[in-house]
Amino acid sequence: MKSHQPAPWSRLDNAAKIFPPTSDREDTKVFRFACELSEEVDPALLQQALDRTVEDFPLYLSVIKKGMFWYYFERSNLRPTVHLECKPPCSPLYDGNRKGLLFEVTCYKRRISLEVYHALSDGTGALQFLRTLVARYLVLRHPERFPEGMPPLDYDASGTQKMDDSFQKYYGGAKRYRKDPAPHAFRLRGEKTEDYRLKVVSGVMSASSVLKVAHSCGATLTVLLAAVLIEAIHGEMPLREEGRPVVLTVPVNLRSYFPSASARNFFGIFNVGYNFKKQPGTFEDILSHVGGYFKRELTAERLALRMNELAALEHNLIARAVPLAFKDVSLRIANRLSERGITAALSNVGRISMPAGMEEYIRLFDVFTSTNRLQLCLCSFGDRLVLSFSSTFAGVDVQRRFFRRLAQLGIDIEITTNQLDGQ
Question: Gene3D superfamilies under this entry (predicted)?
Fold first, then answer.
């Protein structure tokens, strides 16, 4: 007689809990990393590389299931298959009515794309998966160049470390985080794309050129781009709404402040706003204001306070006993309320590296995400910096203003966009 052992399972991390109840067709909570090679992709070899890569990331073979009180991951027998890209970017991956893997690997000409449902991992965790996948693929594609097989990546975490829930590890108890009530932020409005399809506008430029401009302004690259984005949004703001601040929400990789090799979610968020009615509104003042706010908020102490306050819910005995259906309603309401305080988002994944000898086969990396507002994501490889806007707005006026401002600062930009039906 066959013995039916229960499938291995694990809890969703603290950041992941918000995603299942708030995913919808306008915001699927899916993000995409892409790697553009210098040659066309061989799908058969990519499948071989994928088969080996998933064994190193066991959580990626999980599905989400509903419990009485929380969602949880359960290991499945499903296996991922490489497909030629045929769907709109960041299409839904999670469906509460069926079991399915929470990521997908596709290819198109020279591009390898990894799409991930955010409950599974954050950008840093997913990037480790893509780096491993691309490295394995290049070893299979060019065995003569890598006769000793897979070169070491600068990410050698064990299976246990990859599965680590770092929110639990660093939870230090709920301490009151003092913050002023968030005012209603300025919200971008406009015609939406058909079926809320994601419109992506990307700019490729020299990373060293942007850094040079940032340093000449006494700013970091992220602060410079945040200031340019705030200024660009202001250019589209009706005069009657200038009393509302332009607020950017900025994800922060907590691994930079709390040692962790987790391939799961481990990020924090802070908001930075600028009120054009109460402040001068010059670019120099926006830059100074944003720089000062980043400096104050990006400390381990401040990030720990935010992290502990958000994690306190799952440690509260009363909240833990509330059935999942009621938690879902509460989380949807909380999500809608928080959305009222945000105009747009900016996420800097940072510099991406690959093992020696592989750079010659890779042109660039790119990242963008589903969103119901406007989001700017960026990453760099070598000297190529890619800035990608995503939104479901049909218009691209903010994006146009943003890239024009960078061009005025002396930065050469190559701009591309995905073509939507009817455009």
Answer: Chloramphenicol acetyltransferase-like domain, Nonribosomal peptide synthetase, condensation domain
Tell me, what CATH number does 119's domain have?
Answer: 3.30.559.10
Task: Answer whether residue 409 shows pLDDT above 50.
Answer: yes
> Do 94 and 119 contact (CB within 8 A), yes or no?
yes
Tokens of 385: 């910096």
Q: Does position 96 have pLDDT exceeding 80, yes or no? A: yes
Distance CA 70, CA 328 (A): 9
DSSP state of 39: S
Is the pTM here over 0.85, yes or no? yes
Assign 21 a pLDDT band (cuts: 50, 70, 90).
very high
Q: How many domains does the chain have?
A: 2
Alpha-carbon distance 35 to 134, whole Å? 8
Query: Could you give the CA distance from residue 423 to residue 343 in angstroms, rounded to a whole number?
Result: 26
Q: Tokens 């589903």, residue?
A: 370
Q: What is the CATH number of the domain that holds 234?
A: 3.30.559.30
Do the domain assignments include residue 187? no
Q: What is the largest CA-CA distance in the chain?
A: 77
Look up the domain containing 33 and give its range.
Answer: 9-151
Give the whole-angstrom CA distance, residue 237 versus residue 246: 9
231 located within any domain: yes
- Residue 184, amino acid: H
